[in-house]
Amino acid sequence: MSDERTPPSPAPRPPEGFETPLHVGQLNLPAAEAFREAFDGIFDRRFFANHGPLEQRLDRELASLFGVRNAVSVVNATAALMLVLRALDLDGEVIVPSFTFPATVQAVVWAGLRPVFCDIDPQTQTLTAARVAPKIGPATAAVLGVHIWGRGCDPLELEALTASRGVKLVFDAAHAVGATFRGRRFGGFGNAEVFSFHATKILNGAEGGCITTDDDDLAARLRTMRSFHDTDERVPGLLRLNAKISEAQAAMTLLGLRSLDSLIEQNRHRYELYRSGIDGTPGIHFLDYAAGETSNHQFIVLSVSPAELGLSRDELLDLLQAKNVLARRYFFPGVHRTPPFCDEGMAELPITDHLCQTLVQLPSGQAVTDADVKRVCAIIRWAATPEGRMAARA
Ligand SMILES: Cc1ncc(COP(=O)(O)O)c(C=O)c1O
């Protein structure tokens, strides 16, 4: 996962910890003045929700960003997943990874469908056509892939597979705002894709999400289903939900869109700084991104090899947390090990289990300065020294 470089020399003595906790989340905030101005507009119009002007503008701007015919903004990505699975009028099973945020799998159940877990590729950490193909059976209604860390499942091979087997294909692209596959932005693959604008994501709407699709009929169904408020294009006879985005969320997301390119650039800079500070440390491996693709570098993900580092992933985490670096083990445990999914026997997913035991996410986002990154790197380099290992085990 990482290239072999000479590690920067370890810190001679234990590096200082942080006085206040350093979190993993992004929390990219717009300028307060711009937000106040947007809110003044909402107050002046006295229009807070229900297909307001900001919701409509957001749908247009998102469609243009993702290069699709339709973007349907909603209250969050969990509701977006529930809606799209329901709007596709499915019945039966949905093939999903377990290495994901619980919402991916729980949405399947909320939509009245049965999740079937599929293990992932150890390199890309996503579903692949080769792994999904044997799981497709007569009860399969859809495949729900996850573009984990903004690195895509290969959408083209999954599109070919699902088309040939007559099942639908949806992507949970909660992590993938602005990321590309073969130079094309995620958003237009499969039957639909779902994005999150939660405060921990690169595009922060406080809460928010959207569904993107080139299928106009599906989009009309989704626009009807996201709200009880009728518009001219209402499709009759559909189950509906109060999942509409508020004008306040739409305002915040629109402001984030203005600086998306610069946020991606800042994240890339932090990622490279982390790499140059830690690469070569024994037992610490960085997630690689395919050359020529854009990533949003929303997450800084390391994999720990305990045999090389001399510490387990959890011992490293304890040491970081003692220094107020609130790095996380994400995702842990695999969704298949949580109720209700483990209640009727545990799916065998060795690669998922391995990743759940070995991955670490480091702090990133606007609040994390270059000096912070350098200090976190010094702590990790120190953890790989005999003194650091001893301290971690004390
Ligand atoms: C992969 C994935 N899917 C779905 C979600 C749910 O997103 P939201 O919080 O917008 O409902 C998340 C949230 O972190 C996620 O990481």
TrEMBL record:
Record: active site: 201
Database matches in SUPFAM superfamilies: PLP-dependent transferases
Source organism, top-level taxon: Bacteria
Entries under InterPro entries matching the protein: DegT/StrS_aminotransferase (IPR000653), PyrdxlP-dep_Trfase (IPR015424), PyrdxlP-dep_Trfase_major (IPR015421), PyrdxlP-dep_Trfase_small (IPR015422)
GO molecular function, one term: pyridoxal phosphate binding
The keyword Cell wall biogenesis/degradation is annotated on this UniProt entry: no
Region of interest called Disordered, as start-end residue ranges on this chain: 1-20
Keyword Transferase tagged: yes
Record-given protein name: DegT/DnrJ/EryC1/StrS aminotransferase
Species of the source: Azospirillum doebereinerae
